[in-house]
Write a structure and sequence with these properties.
It contains 10 helices and 13 strands. By secondary structure, it is an alpha/beta fold. Helix 1 packs across helix 9, helix 2 runs parallel beside helix 3 and helix 4 packs across helix 10. The longest helix is centred in the first third of the chain and has 19 residues.
Length: 296
């Protein structure tokens, strides 16, 4: 195993799977190891906590060593899984599609929040700002999540494009935060008038800036005025060459998490979710269509 620093300075280890000594060999039998990667959608502190707890929980459940690693961006995570540097990943829909272009990978499960395997992107502002609709936001400053974030970048920009709105002309200024937490801070601190973030899928009129809530901010500090979606929820994916035994053990361990009170608490802390639902590659057709639309 080796370690390096990327992007935000978090230590990221790239672990290879250790195989077993062939029958009749003289070396010790090694346990199969699993390296699990994800990004930091709601901030560095949350990612550090989640990586430690996920490593411990899966090591116990699988009865074999698991190391969780935090990558600075969805693109770096996609590259790591697609190239086999890591064995499994908790990925945004966009990162999954990127990784699937690089190599054969397999979606195992999708996160479930409130019983739904999908979520939305929302436009929001600071409470009391007086922005209640998209037309009210014209001439204001918009904060996006940098890179290929589905809810924090691609889906809201595609939504504007379909409405015939050029964001560079409609808004006075576009700025980017490194993650959802920073976008929420930019809006709260008045450095941006409007932001975009993720929101769990609820009733059509129940729109909450969950990216801000997951970052520990007060939901009442913000107001949502527009929703975009649905977007398929984050996915747990594995490299295609991972052994079927390890793949199935990982899937079973994750499915069992929400069956105990402690497991439910871990699901909330690590994944900001309450369970998992089956996943298939076809679930991400909307993401591929969006990318094609944006490239036109």
């Amino acid at each position: 195993m080796f370690a390096r620093k990327i992007g935000i300075g978090l230590v990221v280890a790239a672990a290879a799977c250790a195989g077993k000594t062939p029958s009749g060999g003289t070396g010790p039998v090694l346990e199969e190891r699993l390296s699990f990667g994800f990004t930091r959608p709601t901030g560095e502190k949350a990612a550090i906590v989640s990586s430690g707890r996920l490593s411990a929980d899966l090591t116990e459940a699988l009865h074999s060593p698991v190391t969780a690693h935090v990558f600075a961006t969805p693109r770096e995570l996609a590259t790591a899984l697609g190239s086999g540097v890591i064995d499994a990943a908790w990925m945004s829909p966009g990162a999954y599609v990127q990784a699937a272009r690089l190599a054969e990978i397999e979606p195992v499960l999708k996160l479930s929040r409130g019983g739904f395997g999908r979520y939305r992107s929302v436009f929001f502002t600071k409470a009391g700002k007086g922005i209640a609709s998209l037309p009210d936001a014209q001439g204001k400053t918009l904060a996006l999540v940098q890179g290929a974030s589905m809810s924090g970048h691609l889906f809201p920009l595609a939504y504007l494009k379909r409405k015939g709105i050029d964001p560079h002309l409609f808004f006075a200024k576009l700025i980017e935060g490194k993650d959802h937490e920073e976008v929420c801070r930019l809006v709260f601190d008045g450095k941006a008038d409007v932001g975009v973030t993720l929101s769990d899928y609820r009733a059509p009129d129940e729109m909450t800036p969950d990216g801000c809530v997951q970052a520990g901010m007060d939901v009442d500090a913000f107001e949502v005025f527009e929703a975009v979606g649905p977007i398929p929820n984050d996915v747990i994916a594995v490299r295609a060459t991972l052994s079927a035994g390890m793949r199935d053990k990982l899937k079973d361990a994750l499915l069992q998490m929400h069956r105990t009170e402690n497991g439910k608490a871990e699901m909330k802390t690590i994944f900001h979710a309450d369970g998992f639902v089956p996943a298939a590659d076809t679930d991400f057709a909307a993401v591929r269509e969006l990318e094609n639309f944006m490239s036109e």
